[in-house]
Each structure stands twice: as structure tokens, then as C-alpha cells.
Amino acid sequence: MTAQNPLPMNLTNSRLRTIVLGLLLGLMISAPTGVLAGSSAVILMYHRFDEADYPSTNTTLEQLDAHIAELTSGPYTILPVGEIVDRLADGKSLPDRTVGITIDDAYRSIYTKAWSKFKQAGLPFTIFVATGQVDQRSSRHLTWDQIREMRDGGGVDIGHHTVTHLHMPKADANHNAAEIKNASARFIKELGSVPPLFSYPYGESSLQISAAVRKAGFIGAFGQHSGVIGGIGDLFSLPRFAMNEKYGDLARFRMVTNALALPVQDVTPSEHLIGDRNPPAIGFTLKNEVSGINGLACFTSHDGRAELERLGPVRIEVRVDKPFPKGRTRLNCTLRTPDGRWRWLGRQFLKLD
Q: 0.90 cut: is pTM over it?
């Protein structure tokens, strides 16, 4: 997990009114899906609860209680994640500060520690399940009976997370197709249907993998990069804000749950995998011309703050000096609004060798 460092900016009231008007009119993001610029949502990503031996993926019960108290007392609309994706796919609007909750990897502490808290608060969530982990019947993971109990108890949906939680970009197309097909078969046997949403293990994907997931019939797929849904508009590279012990304090939680999309188009590179050109040519075009754009800040996890070059009124090029290292590298771009909220765009790249 990489620290995010948003920096302040100013935006004129007249330009803000222009942007808001554009959002209300539902201007379309130029992307391979039908997401509206005026529709956005924050998706939270948890993994496990009250498991102190794994701080990078663990959320303490004190943190969880604070998160739930904020969501139930603040100005938020909490919707099932599937409903959020459906609305975006159909071009329907969402309330301001819409939030969805996801939990990856089907750890048993979801059932023993968190489910009752979410249920009592009336907060729906989606669990992304790697079927092979459940089939191993380890004490660390949920059982199929527990999964069915939570699903049937209301407010809990199940998502697809492959069989073995593999690094999909390292596997060939046939292997990835088999992972999807075989997990789907297990979901049909145990739950009666294939989940409509997919989560890339480790948040790792590529254009080829996203196309395969789309072809398999899913309505959307999630990564593990920070950002607000509705920015880029690609329903098969949906961002989420990760929660854990280090990045689960209430101040950060409020910052991300109040975040807004940074509506962009013509995003480069389109591929998430780093090839021969390293560092890659990174850039995007703002959907609206924004006064005070010099306040935009972008950071990479391996090289800190990047230099930004503005080409015309709305085109931004992100200049990174250091080559991306092997493994995952994250990019975060933020822009502060006059009322203290943050427009947030994130991407995750992967270098295999």
C-alpha cells in the first residue's frame, strides 16, 4: 500500500458551477463503457478483521466500528456494489457521496468478526471469493455454508475472484479462461449462479485479461488502485480505496469517502502492463477545462511526485523519470475542490520482468 499525498488547490466559483452543471447534465466520459461524468461512487476494499498478524490487510475492530459509525451518521448513501455498477452501466445517476463496500479473499473473520456489525448497521457488502481457497477447508477461510448463510441473511452479495487467486498477467490466456470457467462451475454448484462482478487477484490485469473477463459475461471488474468510479469510465478497471491498519484511520476514511471522480478521457497508456517503453508515456485529457489546474498533483509509488506538463487547456502529461521497477506501481492524481473534497484518479501498472 502506498501513501497518498493530495495537495491543495483553488478553483474559481464560476468554473465550479460550470463543472457541476456539466455533471448534472450527465456528460458522457469517452471510454469503452457508458459511464456518465456526473455519476461517481467510492468503493471501499477490506480483506480481514481483527487479525493483527497481517497488518497490511487487516482492519482492527476499533477501526471498523469507527468506519461504520461514520457511514451511518454521515451524508452518505450506501448501496450494494452490484447496484452501483448496474446504474453506471445503464447511464443512471447516483446520489452524491455514494459508497459501496467490498471484501476480498473470503477470510473467516468476515463471518466471525465483521458480518454482525455490518448487518446490525444495515450496510450491504460484496465478498469476492476465490473458490479454491474455500474448497481447501482451511480454518482461515469461509466455508460454503457460511457463505450461503450470509448471502441468504440479506445484504451480502458474492463476487468472482478466480479459483486459485493467481497472478493473471503471468498466466497464458487458456489458463486464465480455465480459472474463470472452473470457479464459475463451483459457484453454480454451491450458490446456484455465477456472480456478476469480478475482482482481479492482486488488482493485476491487462487489456487481454479485461477483454476475457468481459467476454465471460461479467458486468464489471475491480482492481486495487485508489480512485473514484466514474473518472475514467471503464467498468472493467474499477478503482477501490484499500482499508488496513495503517491506512484505516478515521481522517483518511473521511477523505476517501468524500472523494469525487476526476473525469478524464484519452488516457494513456491504455495497457496496464509495462513493456519496452519504461517509464511509459502517461497522460489524460480532462473532460472539462478547470481553472486552477496547476494545483493538480500526481504521485507514483516508486518515484514520488511527478512533473506535470500541460498541453493546451485540458491535456495533462505525467513525466516520470525513473523506470518502473518489477512488480506493481501505483499512480495517484488528486485535485482539491474549494469545499475541501478531493477529485481522485488512480491507476496500477505492472512490470513482469
A: no
